[in-house]
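Lay summary. Proteins are chains of building blocks that fold into shapes, and those shapes determine what they do. In this project we predict the shape from the chain. Here is one chain we studied, written as its sequence of building blocks.
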Amino acid sequence: MRRFVWILFLAFPLMASDNNELQMTNFELQDTGNGEWKKENGKWETLHSHFLPLTAHRFVLAFQSSIINHPSPILVNGWAQGRLSGQWVIQDSLRSWLYSTRGILLPGIEWIFLEKGDWTADMEFRLQANYDFTVTDKEKKSAEDMEIYRGWLRFYSPFSEFRIGYQQLNFGSGRYGRALNWFDNINYLDPQKMTAGVWGARMQLFYHNNANLWLWSLYGNENIRDQSWDIQKDKPEFGGRLQVPIFNGEMGFTGHYREVEKELNTGIERRIGLDGVWDPIIGIWFESSLASLDIPEYGWNNEWLRWNHVTGLDYTFGIGNGLNIAIEGTISGKKSNPSEWNSFHKAWSLHHQYRLYASYLFSILDQIYLSAILSEDSDFVSGGLAWVRSTDDWTIYLSVSDLSSRIFTEDLTKRHTISTSLWITRYF
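And here is the predicted shape, written in a compact code that computers can read:
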């Protein structure tokens, strides 16, 4: 961690004279000039310039000394989570089970290190440490690992933002099922909304009419969500998104370009996405994504090979504290038979899925979720119930679900997969 701090400050030195002050409205501590820190008017407001020496080298040494000798102005936070899960599979005389525990520790630092005029610069660095222990009817196993969860620098003003490093990149209007989760795998029920990040740089421009433009470049990412082919991680990727207000909602137009490979043959993948959301009387949203591939060795010349689409509606009824009901339909298609590409129905293999969600807020702290998923083509139905209790310091998540397969066939053999989970999270 100290090496990271040294690199950060050598790369971004702050220069100030003895007569200037740097406003630090989000910091919690203030140097009074005599080796002490104080609080003014219920919040920490100003860090005087004698703490900012005139050279980068002296600034780094002063910062290191302040960490050792004084409470640090860097915000340290995070959370720890314990998960208990069980799964039971029942099919005729077949019985199998699985129990697992998982511990997650996610500590990190956040720091606003520059405020000048309309511009602010901040950073976040966060690690994720995991420990897993699993017991099945056949074996026991454990695993542990630690990795970077976030690590980025950001410079922003009221009308622009530039961020570089390992960051979260997600967009779209979908709420449950997703077609534009090209770079994330967020579970809508996860209170922490955890997802892997991507290495890259992103710029956003914000306009007076609430439109905004995104531009990004990614590099060195192997395990990006929703990848269909192997990514050439030593080649940069490029993408962008334009989000504009339309009527009382908004629409987004997204594109992404990357170089890929399949069985030692290289090619180009292009993606386009369209999404929108409106809320006149009932909420309406949709996401749609198309992916094309250009690998001449396979006969793929900018052929559109994948299609995903989600449409949803929701309405909140005035029952008690509010009962929200949402319905979604998903179509996913894959073009698999080149000899039949002249016929849409023969070339595309389409899968349909329908979802029903309900949520009710029992109190400020407690919320109940109910879900039912019907997959007509994959021949299964799933139902689940979840309870979430959230306070400033704790979150408790409890769920149970049942997935039943082979419900549309004449075969009476059914397979039930029953799962239950308990997550307890403590924030610090």
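What the prediction tells us: The CA atoms of residues 327 and 356 lie 5 Å apart.
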